[in-house]
Amino acid sequence: RDTIIYGDMNALQFQDETFDMVFSSHSFEHTNKPTIAAQEIKRVTKTGGLIYICVPSEFGVPHEHDDCTLYENINEIPTLFGLNTLMMDEQKADSYWMPEYRILLEKNRG
User: Does the model's pTM come out above 0.85?
Assistant: First the structure.
């Protein structure tokens, strides 16, 4: 049975190191506190776990999306987390409704 839990990514309702993997697709850019959101995502990810983030790339975001944080450089996002980066790419194919950055991070042991 699946459970859906709604909440604030700046104050996640989970214990530390709960998940083996955290997946965030097209939501991270909507927080006005990306550093806090990154800390929260990192907190609930188990040591050795993975974090997969997808955000629209700057060149693909129409101007009417004023609530989005536009990341002009893909390296800005892993810096917020301070974690080992396993993969970063800029998907220019229209796989969703706009081009996106895809980042896979690992929460290092020790």
Answer: no
Q: Determine contact, residues 17/46, Cβ cutoff 8 Å.
A: yes
Hey, how many other C-beta atoms are within 10 angstroms of the C-beta on 49? Answer: 18
| Helical spans, DSSP H, in the chain | 34-44, 76-81
Contact between 81 and 40 under an 8 Å Cβ cutoff? The reply is: no
* pLDDT, mean of residues 94-106: 71
Q: Which residues have a Cβ under 8 Å from the Cβ of 96 and sit 6 or more positions away?
A: 26, 54
Over residues 24-43, the pLDDT tens digits come to 888 887 888 888 999 999 99
Cα–Cα distance between 44 and 46 in angstroms, integer?
6
Residue 4 amino acid letter: I
DSSP class of residue 66 equals T
Per-residue H/E/C for 81-109 = HCCEEEEEEEECCCCCCCCEEEEEEECCC
